[in-house]
């Protein structure tokens, strides 16, 4: 199993990926708000994501999960297709 951290602009994007990962037999899937004190990662993500139409009204989300090694490339594609960024 491999642990991933994927970042999203909003909860809807993260929850959509959570549902897809459940179909892939991922374990320990957790979606939570990005902590406000994680300034370095928030700065990196703001440069990766397109400007948000809603400004910063909704907090960014982080999804963590344990996935099978053989599903890694598929998971990366799912995250990217849902406007997320995966930490390598």
Characterization of the model:
The chain has 88 residues and is an alpha+beta fold. The protein is 38% helix and 27% strand. The protein has three helices and four strands. It has helices spanning 11-23, 39-48, 72-81, and strands spanning 2-8, 27-33, 61-67, 85-87. A four-stranded antiparallel β-sheet has the order 2-3-1-4, with helices on one face. The longest helix has 13 residues, at 11-23.
List keywords for this structure.
38% helix, four-stranded antiparallel sheet, alpha+beta, 88 residues, single chain, globular
Q: List low-confidence stretches.
A: none
User: How would you sum up the global shape?
Assistant: globular
Main β-sheet: number of strands, strand sense, barrel status?
4 strands, antiparallel
* Average pLDDT: 84
Can you give the helix content as a percent range? 25-40%
Summarize the structure in short.
The protein has 88 residues and is an alpha+beta fold. The chain is built from three helices and four strands, in the order βαβαβαβ.
Which helices and strands occur, and which strands form pairs?
Layout: E1 2-8, H1 11-23, E2 27-33, H2 39-48, E3 61-67, H3 72-81, E4 85-87
Antiparallel strand pairs: 1-3, 1-4, 2-3
